[in-house]
Amino acid sequence: MKAYKADAIRNVALIGHGGCGKTSLAEALLFASGGIDRLGKVDDGTTISDYDPDEIKRKISINATLVPCEWQGTKMNVIDAPGYADFMGDVKSALRVVEGAIIVVCAVSGMEVGTETTWDFAESYNVARAFFINKMDRENADFYAVAEALKTRFGTGVVPVQLPIGSQDSFKGVVDLLGMKARIGAGKSATVGEIPADMAEAVSKHRDALIEAAAENDDELITKYLEGEELSDAEIARGLAAGIRSGKTMPVFCGSSSKDIGVSALMDEIVRAFPSPADAEPAKGVNPQTNAEEERKPLDTEPFSALVFKTLADPYVGKLTYLRVYSGVLKSDSHVYNSTKGAEERIGQVYFLKGKNQEATAEAHAGDFAAIAKLAETGTGDTLCDKAKAVKFEAIEFPSPVFTVAIRAKTKVDEDKLGPALARMVEEDPTFQFRREPETGETLISGLGEAHVEIVVDRLKRKFGAEVDVNTPKIPYRETITTGAKAQGKHKKQTGGRGQYGDAYVELEPLERGQGFEFVNKIVGGAIPRQYIPAVEKGVREAMERGLLAGYPVVDIRAKVYDGSFHAVDSSEMAFKMAGILAFHSAATNANAVLLEPIVSVEVIVPEEYMGDIIGDLNGKRGRILGMEQIAGGRQRIKALVPQAEMLRYAIDLRSIARGRGRFTTELSHYEQVPAHTAQQIIEQRKKDKEES
Ligand SMILES: Nc1nc2c(ncn2[C@@H]2O[C@H](COP(=O)(O)OP(=O)(O)OP(=O)(O)O)[C@@H](O)[C@H]2O)c(=O)[nH]1
Ligand SMILES: [Mg+2]
Hints:
The chain is an alpha+beta fold. The chain starts with 8 loop residues before the first strand and ends with a helix. The protein has 16 helices and 37 strands. The chain binds guanosine-5'-triphosphate (GTP) and magnesium ion.
């Protein structure tokens, strides 16, 4: 593939609800443009885009994949984005680096949650938008109903530029409302001809709507239109292109990806009317030294700048960095500067990617995409640039992980591989995180949902040979006392030679939540020599770590040592530490110990209609609603305090309650006493776990 210049490039992301046919469309675009000889199928695992073993196994897209197509002297950099909510990170990074998005919609299911969420993202990134109503060949396909629903939801800018000829079994082509021609048949055997007579009425109605929409984007055209003058095809096309570029007009296309119908017509229009990188506003960033604003025009003559939007970790090939060039030219065997990390990087070979296939190129021009292997410092979201003319672009915003599980290496060998493997996974996937929870000793991994963490676990094994068991995370319970108590702890032993003697009186008092531990020395008159006091404290602390009820650490107490005795020869630090342990235990027996659990503050954002169900569910989770607040877009923000133990699967619960249209965050707030009967269950479970291990 030759290196194209900005004005001959179109960067478009395919986005939409899971399973609407994005990958099939990407495949059809490649096939129709002659990039492949055979139309692969997602169900057979033979598409260029879904090449990853996890994608083939599950028949869904997980990664955004580049599928460049050459059409009419133009290179369309198509990014096939995933559709499932767990992989929204890649939708965001794809939208960040394109000028246009095709929102694919299933002609049978119509508008779905993913249609709305991905449209919202595309709007917030300000990219040109069009709809492709796919699967027109399927039973119950209904183009007009779906187009109408899109218009209701996304506004009057939604306007068909094509109409289907036939539907379901009889779907055989599309009418081009702009050229007023019919394209009948699949792929290369399609013929261009007259519009079927029985469609005259529908065609005239929708052509009128199209003309009106096109005229609205151009002052000269709207005047002409309002004065009743007829617009030429060229004028309509001009108005339409202006509308698409400004984001005001969202043309609706239709077709069948699996039958390759309507696909070349879509490409024609992308090339004709979608913005090229040369049309884009200059990329805005800052000077990394001075923070002064910087701009980079999409020209080869500007200093080089690029944004990294994806990183793939390959255990054999190493790291592969995907980037979008914003200005200048990226050349093989050169040096660039990573202004995000403040590090120089050596560029070896520059590649164009097509699915997993890498094609070497000497250079990539402004506006194009490229990939580089084995960059040492560079990660997703970093800016690469010319060191002499440095610029730093804003990083990509990724959704935060909301679903966490605990993992444990199966064997010692797995354990050794796990740490480096997790670090590589984080590099590859900014929506994935891991950490060690010191209180429970577990390794926790977090992602956007259950499927996401399952895939991470599969990848740990397949890519890095680290096999792990997956469990629900343990809750870091704690223990405390509720009343004060005192006791003596006396450690006295005579075993041959020198004996052991330590004797301490300790008083325990409950402290407020979150106060931790306080140790007070109230010894007067040297009842315990000063040098042994720290040993008593050490003993108390050790005993606290081991717990009172279920072996969870004890917190929020004050321990006061107020009396004791010693032996001139037999006393030692060791003996006084033992005395501390004994005193703590005897006192605690009378101090009404209780279990504490972590409470998280939860913030949920959902469309108004789900508010009742959300609140009901949180109440059922022992939650306390703190407040509700109306926010933009007919949505509500609900704040609550909920025990962490009840929130472990909330990512899944919320998705089902709010049908994928809710978001939430949690943050550790404080610890509270566990209600008695729940505490009993936890204590018994803990005993069982201990017996088993
Ligand atoms: N009948 C028919 N089936 C289609 C068409 N396009 C896609 N499909 C089928 O729909 C299913 C999902 O297609 P994909 O292309 O994987 O959809 P996707 O949008 O890429 O899915 P995700 O990436 O997982 O969100 C597959 O079984 C396809 O064969 C079409 O035009 N007609
Ligand atoms: Mg897909």
